[in-house]
Specification:
Number of domains: 2
Shape: elongated
Strand content: 15-25%
Oligomer: single chain
Helix content: 25-40%
CATH architecture of the largest domain: 2-Layer Sandwich
CATH topology of the largest domain: BirA Bifunctional Protein, domain 2
Mean pLDDT: 90
Strand order of the largest sheet: 1-5-6-11-10-9-7-8
CATH class of the largest domain: Alpha Beta
Length: 439
RNA sequence: GCGAUCGUAGCUCAGUCGGUUAGAGCGCUGGUUUGUGGUACCAGAGGUCGUGGGUUCGGAUCCCAUCGGUCGCCCCA
């Protein structure tokens, strides 16, 4: 008989198990929990949007032409023949919902979400094909105050996660007029120094000239660094907008650095562009990034609507947060024999109902069960054997120092372990022995 | 799409100028201790050396191909 071959996990996906020494799942969960708590402080409501959308949602928002749309999305035909795409980002889907669900009535809308995203890319450090992001958006607010609020939110999130060594880099792309003028000047500059550019950047010049500015190729750096900055091309309005954003950050006490080379490829980006970056993640330094996308909702067929938002990679943040404490249990219940097990089921049910973290093995002799209790980090063991049972008692053992004592089952709720009354009291407060005995 | 690098036990890895039965630590199972863990000691199970082909008397080791992991380039919504 042929050996059954186990299907391999799909490239770029990951499995996370809680309770392991790496505690990656715990760190992942901690990032989400922190985000959920902090976003509430800023009045962002949770929004749920589908994991897949009509392909047009992303194709229009990203611009049909790009590599991103043609090569890097998970697109398939469903049984009805419709082209469907697994979401590669949150923003487009949220904007689609804003239009189709009539959420204009709630504008300005402050929403947050998190969940899986899918991109068909080559996996590497901090890049997966199914990955997860946190996302925060403000739709229907054209004021710089929205940009500031979002940035302060991002800053507080990173602080509360305890992530060190991240800097906020900030730039403005100006309004449409500023942006077009700057872009033209950049193209002129790069054309003039075409012979000094790398082959890749010569290609970029035709495709996406702004990207030459953040090229990693050392051959490009001199030309990129001497390229004109946007400041000379900013309209008065655009300059005033950026000044209000930076003034707001200063007022909120958020540190930032100007990065005049920070750009966005797509045309609908306006004004603020930002990235919180670190050098601790290899080639993927951006931990949280976003900007203002005033043109996007129109691209999707909606009314002209200003909006700004950011997204942050949960895996990347999880790699940077400190190891959380491993979950441990308070009490291990250890019955010896069937009669004891029946009583133990009652006791452990009441412990758990009282909010005490308790566990009981399905099998094993006493030694096995004690070993397991220890491996789980249990602070206490409640041992129920024939001797105890005969007298309506249990043995309560403190696993931190090995002391133990007998106790009537009825008295378990206020069992006084010598020298540790308060500990035991808090542990077993609320325990109802009458229910345990009833069982 | 391109490049580099690595695939040996459940995990982390040693072993390669080609040479008998492929090793360690951790984990797992059992025992020292038929009702007492965390330390210690003893024993045991577990491996088509990623896969396929080639060179050779002989391949975990050398060559080719292929699949997979990792890291980087491209791209980055």
């Amino acid at each position: 008989m042929a050996k059954i071959e186990t299907p391999r996990p799909v490239r770029g996906t990951q499995d996370m198990l809680g309770g392991t020494p790496e505690a990656f799942q715990e760190r992942f969960a901690h990032v989400i929990a922190t985000f959920d708590r902090v976003r509430r402080l800023y009045g962002f409501n949770r929004v749920e949007v589908p994991v897949f959308e009509a392909t047009a949602v992303f194709a229009r928002s990203l611009g049909e032409s790009t590599d991103v749309v043609s090569k890097e999305m998970y697109t398939f035909e469903d049984r009805g023949g419709d082209s469907i795409t697994l979401r590669p980002e949150f923003t487009a889907g949220i904007c689609r919902a804003y239009i189709t669900e009539g959420w204009q009535q709630y504008a300005p809308l402050k929403v947050a979400t998190h969940g899986p995203l899918f991109r068909y890319e080559r996996p590497q450090k901090g890049r997966f094909r199914q990955f997860h992001q946190l996302d925060a958006e403000i739709i229907g607010a054209g004021e710089p105050g929205a940009d500031v609020e979002l940035l302060v939110l991002g800053d507080q999130l990173l602080r509360e996660l305890g992530i060190e060594g991240v800097t906020l880099t900030l730039n403005t792309l100006g309004d449409a007029q500023s942006r077009d003028a700057w872009r033209a000047a950049l193209i002129a500059h790069f054309e003039a120094h075409r012979d000094q550019l790398s082959e890749e950047s010569i290609d970029r010049l035709a495709r996406n000239p702004l990207r030459i500015l953040d090229s990693k190729d050392p051959r490009d750096r001199p030309v990129a660094d001497s390229a004109p900055g946007i400041d000379a091309y900013l309209t008065d309005e655009a300059r005033a907008f950026f000044e209000k954003v930076t003034a707001g950050l200063d007022a909120a006490g958020v540190a930032w650095e100007r990065n005049a080379r920070l750009v966005r490829g797509l045309d609908y980006y306006r004004h603020t562009a930002f990235e919180f970056v670190t050098d601790r993640l290899g080639a993927q330094g951006t931990v949280l990034g976003g900007g203002r996308y005033d043109g996007l909702i129109e691209n999707l067929g909606g009314p002209a609507t200003p909006a700004v938002g950011w997204a942050a990679g949960i895996e990347r943040l999880a790699m940077l947060v400190d190891m959380p404490e491993r979950a441990s249990i308070d009490v291990a219940v250890i019955p010896m024999g069937e009669a004891a097990e029946a009583v133990a089921i009652g006791i452990i049910a009441d412990l758990r109902r009282a909010g005490i973290v308790a566990d009981m093995g399905y099998r094993g002799n006493m030694k096995k069960r004690m070993q397991r209790a220890n491996a789980q980090g249990s602070r206490m063991a409640i041992i129920i054997g024939d001797d105890e049972l005969a007298q309506g008692e249990v043995t309560v053992r403190d696993l931190t120092d090995g002391t133990q004592q007998r106790c009537k089952i009825e008295a378990l709720g206020d069992f006084p372990l010598a020298g540790k009354a308060s500990f035991v009291e808090s542990l077993l407060r609320g325990f109802d022995p009458s229910k345990a005995i009833a069982n």
